[in-house]
Amino acid sequence: MTSPISGLSNTSILNRIKDGYLIWMNIVPHIPKTARYTIGTRIENKFLNLLELAYAAYFIEKEKKEEKISMCIFELDILKFLISTSWEAKCISHKQYEEIAVNLDEVGKMLWGWKKSLDPNKKNRAR
């Protein structure tokens, strides 16, 4: 069975965010209960917010697309900070942190690339 979003063009960003969320969902059961329902839940909510924002960015009118992508980048930065904090607090292992950090770094590069591709000053400039 294919995912409903697989039919969208250029969904690699959505798929990478979803992959990160699935990684996180595998980590959650291993987080101490004292942190699972605080920072763990906050991280999960940030992932879901990021997924929603990125999905909306695909369908929003062109004039508002760059703003929506900027919101995605901001949400991603908060997510990275929270995950880093959970690692520093020893709620997640180094290996878990590394796996999710690599994923989120890729998402960040993709979002920045998407945002830059919308810059009208970068398109078809003659030298």
Number of individual domains? 1
Number of strands: 0
Counting H and I runs of at least 4 residues, what is the number of helices?
Answer: 5
Average pLDDT: 90
User: Major beta sheet, specifics?
Assistant: none
Helical content band: over 70%
- CATH fold topology: de novo design (two linked rop proteins)
Beta-strand proportion: under 5%
Global structural class: mainly alpha
In CATH, what is the class? Answer: Mainly Alpha
Q: Give, in order, the helices and strands.
A: HHHHH
CATH superfamily: 23S rRNA-intervening sequence
- The rounded Rg comes to 16 Å
* Named CATH architecture: Up-down Bundle
Shape: elongated
Distance between the first and last residues' Cα: 48 Å
Describe the structure.
The protein is an all-alpha fold and 127 residues long. It has one domain (10-118): Up-down Bundle (de novo design (two linked rop proteins)), CATH 1.20.1440.60. Helix content is 72%, strand content 0%. It is built from 5 helices and no strands. It has helices at residues 12-27, 33-36, 39-59, 62-88, 94-117. α1 runs antiparallel to α3 (39-59) and α3 (39-59) runs antiparallel to α4. The radius of gyration is 16 Å and the shape is elongated. The N and C termini lie far apart (48 Å). The model is unreliable at 1-7 (pLDDT under 50).
